[in-house]
Amino acid sequence: MSRLVARLREDDSGQILPLALAYGVLALLLITAVVSATSIHLERKRLLALADLAALSAADALDEDAYFSRDAGDDLVVLGEDEVTEQVTAYLTEAAPADLDDLALVAATTDGRTVTVTLRAVARPALISWVTAPWSDGIAMVVTSSARAG
User: Fold this and answer.
1) What are the structural domain ranges in the chain?
2) Interatomic CA distance for residues 86 and 79, integer angstroms
3) Which single residue of 9, 17, 23, 92 has CA 20 to 30 Å from 65?
């Protein structure tokens, strides 16, 4: 019996180390992929929140004199394209975080009551590994948000 155990130990010696190393490398690659995907998702959520706030700021920028001087039977005061673009640009200049790469205003439009803002930025993975290397230059994100005036 002891010869059988000794022979089994000799046959299996050193076989667990390559397996453990392979699983360790696989786990590290999986961790880098998950961390990078999470960071990209969080950047997209930040960009979407910025677009929400820019649209809300533009929708809230009604001309107060025109709004309060209108008669009760008049139509609602409408938002103009120029005012919307100006307000969104001013908001982004003031409130945009500096760490959003290549932030750009794609469009700021209105139908008179609803403001639609489209922003573009580039997000880069937090960790670069063999798995995330194809996206090391960044991933372009485009978000659109709307807000309705008063």
Assistant:
1) 2-148
2) 12
3) 92
Q: In one letter, which amino acid is 11?
A: D
DSSP secondary-structure letter at 135? G
Distance between alpha carbon 28 and the CA centroid of its chain, in Å? 24
Q: Where are the beta strands (DSSP E) in the chain?
A: 101-110, 114-123, 139-148
Picking from 141, 150, 140, the residue whose alpha carbon sits closest to that of residue 49 is: 141
Q: Where does the pLDDT of residue 143 fall: very low under 50, low under 70, confident under 90, or very high at 90 and above?
A: very high
Tokens, residue 139:
């991933």
pTM score, whole prediction: 0.77
Cα 137 to Cα 139: distance, rounded to the nearest angstrom: 7
- Mean of the per-residue pLDDT values of the chain: 83
Let me know: does 126 contact 75? Beta carbons within 8 Å: no
Structure tokens at 40: 């990209």
* Residues in contact with 50: Cβ distance below 8 Å, sequence separation at least 6, in sequence order: 92, 95, 96, 97, 100, 119
